[in-house]
Each structure stands twice: as C-alpha cells, then as structure tokens.
Predict the structure of Phytocyanin domain-containing protein.
Amino acid sequence: MSSSTHLLFSLLLFSAAATLSPILATDHIVGANRGWNPGMNYTLWANNQTFYVGDLISFRYQKNQYNVFEVNQTGYDNCTTEFAVGNWSSGKDFIPLNKAKRYYFICGNGQCFSGMKVSVLVHPLSPPPSAAVGDVEHSPTSSAAPVGVQRRGFGALVVSFVVICFGFGWM
C-alpha cells in the first residue's frame, strides 16, 4: 500500500471514528421548544419519542426556578425526591440514558404536582429478536429495523461518503 493510500485510509478511519459518536446519540429536549415548565403534558411528549441507550434527555428551564430529579417509580407516582438517584439544577441539563430501562424524572420543588414529571422507556440499540413464524400479525416486516437505527445508519453513511469524496479529491 502506498503512503498516500495508507494516509487516506488512516484519515478515513479517524474521521469515521470522530464523527460516528455524535451521530449515534439523539438529544431529546423535554417539551421541545416549550421546555420544562408546569402545566405541560410530558407523557404525551414522551410517547412521541423513541429513546435508545446512548441518547440524551435534556431539560431546559429557568435555572433558579425549577430543577430535575431522577427518582424511582414510587417517587414519580408520589412526587417525592426521597431516594433520588440524581439531581440537576443548571437550567440546561443533559442527562445520558446509559441503560435500557424506564427512567423517571420529576421537578423537586413542588411543581411535580403541576405536571412537571416525565417517564421514558429506553430501548437497547440492537433490533428486537424476530417474532415466531406463527405470529405474523404482531411481527415487524423482516427488512425493517427500528426507526432510530435506520436514522443513525443513514447519517453514518453520508459522513463516510463525504470523507471518501474529499479524500480522493472528488469534491
């Protein structure tokens, strides 16, 4: 392999490694453009999202007015921060979702009772196992991967294509 080919190959690998990480994670901003505020239906917002391991959930709010606590289901149901496993108060909190499980978040200053709570289910990155052959009605189509996986793969493909084109001087 010539030194220029070796350099191009190294550049391609480095570029792919540097760019794939941000592509794989999705930042889910709670409440979208309305943020983390009382009187919102965060259950509806969460039901319209798909969360995967490695994604982030972000809370945007008035720094000294609200906060975020990660609690268990009892804390979520009763709006209590007892036994909280995490808390944030920066006003722009980015919380990694590192495990496939259900997460529970509440506002700890009493606003939980006004709707400032959200529960999200985080899925593993790998597609679910195929359904049994006899379960045609409930099985996904054989060629379809979960939407999040398709979205992420396409971004990586575009980045790789651009890096290759620049490397060969085609752009």
